[in-house]
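Reading a protein record of the kind used here takes only a little practice. An example makes this concrete, so a full record is given next.
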Amino acid sequence: MKTKIIKIPKIEDPRGNLSVIEKDILPFAMKRVYYLYDVPGGAERGGHSHKEQHEFLVALSGSFDVIVNDGKEEKKIVLNKPFEGLLIPNGIWRELKNFSSGAVCLVVASDVFDESDYIRDFEEFIETVG
C-alpha cells in the first residue's frame, strides 16, 4: 500500500504547541486546503479515489478512521494526532468513518477541485486498478 503516515514538525512551547506544514514535508505542492467538521454521528465522508490528485489528511481535533484500499489490500488507519497525517496518493480508495464529537479533518491537496479526477463508484475503481 502506498499510503504513509508523515510526522509534522512540532514546536513545543509552554504557551501551546505549533505544527507547520511547509517546504518539503509533503511530496507535492499544495494547491488546495479544505477541512471537514461538524460531521454528524454515524456519517461517512470520502467514498472515492482520485486519478491524479494526492491528498494529506490530518486530524486537527478529535479522531476518525480512514479506510484505504488499493484494489488488493484494505487497511484502517486511525488519525487522532494533530502532528501527523496520512498521505494518500492517487489510485487509492478512501472512506472516512467514526468521527468523534468535535473532530476536524484537514485535507491538503495537490490540485484544485476537478470532478473529472474523481472515481466515485467502487466497482469502477476496482476495474481501473485492475
Q: What stands out?
A: The helical segments are 122-129. Residues 4-10+26-129 form a domain with the Jelly Rolls fold (CATH 2.60.120.10).
